[in-house]
Design a protein that fits this description.
The chain is of the alpha/beta class and 304 residues long. It is built from nine helices and 14 strands. It has two domains: 139 residues, Murein tetrapeptidase LD-carboxypeptidase, N-terminal domain (Rossmann fold); 138 residues, LD-carboxypeptidase A C-terminal domain-like (Glucose Oxidase, domain 1), CATH 3.50.30.60. Helix 9 links the parallel strand 10 and strand 11.
């Protein structure tokens, strides 16, 4: 049964952004520069108690990291939650999170890359619109365009917007809620209780620095699992090749091959994900994918 998505409250100047580290450990100087960039845009910033903790490569134990995500969702002072960085580790938190509790205290949640492990279950299990977009640590390096887009989107200033694609692989139009994220993470979720619900969705995929054969292997797995046959449309963001132009051409060929025969539009090259402007995208919100316009378009605000 279809349900209306839960939209979080808009983020206003002076509101508090909570910064939490659900994945890999982050360097203090790197985090401070990002926190200062958010503060310069008029927001208060509250970092979690264990944001700089370390347990091997992770930002503290699984229970510490999950507990801090849960605590910030429950904290009435915090109006939005930004992941400090990605890397690795978000998937380890999934059995430890209470998605019904998250739904009871909806708020903006932002991350990408490894945070795709959390974005999709928050959409599926909590029913909450969340945001594939820049994280707190790298915020200092954002372009003005990316920062303005992020602040405008989270602030409710954009009742509609569109992201331009560069290439049409398969023609057509489709409408559906957007899901997905980092290709390797989406593939890693297959066969688990946390796998995205692909039926009727627009699947957004991006990746960073993978060999062409590894991109193909992951797309083959998505196709053979039946996931690609369920979606309404597919749109690719950043797919930087590991070894230059030849790899890029191979990746393009593999995308065309693994999406051939699907009854849906397939577009490439929107500015979202690694090595792009990384313009924020609402997950769980309905969008339109149109090969003639070469756009992924949203006709409503993701916040209230």
């Amino acid at each position: 049964m279809n349900r209306s998505p839960i939209k979080p409250a808009a983020l206003r100047p002076g509101d508090t952004i909570g910064v939490v580290a659900p994945a890999a450990a982050i360097d203090a100087e790197f985090l401070e520069r990002g926190v200062n960039a958010l503060g310069a845009r008029g927001f208060r910033v509250k970092v979690s108690a264990h944001v700089l903790s370390r347990s091997g490569i992770l930002a503290g134990s699984d229970r510490e990291r999950a507990g801090e995500v849960a605590a910030f969702f429950a904290d009435p002072e915090v109006k939005a939650i930004f992941a400090a960085r990605g890397g690795y580790g978000s998937g380890r938190l999934l059995p430890l999170l209470d998605f019904a509790a998250i739904a009871r205290t909806p708020k903006i949640f932002v991350g990408f890359s490894d945070l795709s492990f959390l974005l999709n279950p928050i959409v599926n299990r909590s029913g909450l619109v969340c945001f594939h977009g820049p994280m707190a640590g790298p915020a200092y390096a954002l372009s003005r365009r990316s920062f303005d887009h992020l602040v405008g989107l989270l602030g409710g200033e954009m009742e509609s917007f569109a992201l331009d694609a560069r290439e049409v692989v398969q023609s057509g139009t489709a409408e559906g809620e957007v899901i997905g994220g980092c290709l390797s993470v989406v593939v890693a979720m297959l066969g688990t209780p946390w796998a995205p619900d692909f039926a009727g969705k627009i699947l957004f995929l991006e990746e960073t620095g993978e060999k062409a054969y590894r991109i193909d292997r992951m797309l083959v797995q998505l196709r053979q699992s039946g996931a690609l046959g369920q979606v309404a449309g597919i749109v690719f963001g950043g797919l930087p090749a590991a070894d230059g132009d030849q790899e890029r051409r191979l990746i393009g060929g593999f995308i065309a091959e693994q999406t051939a025969g699907l009854d849906c539009p397939v577009l490439c090259g929107i500015e979202a994900g690694h090595t792009t402007e990384n313009l924020a995208i609402p997950f769980g919100l309905r969008a339109r994918l149109d090969s003639r316009a070469m756009k992924l378009s949203f006709a409503e605000s993701p916040v209230i």
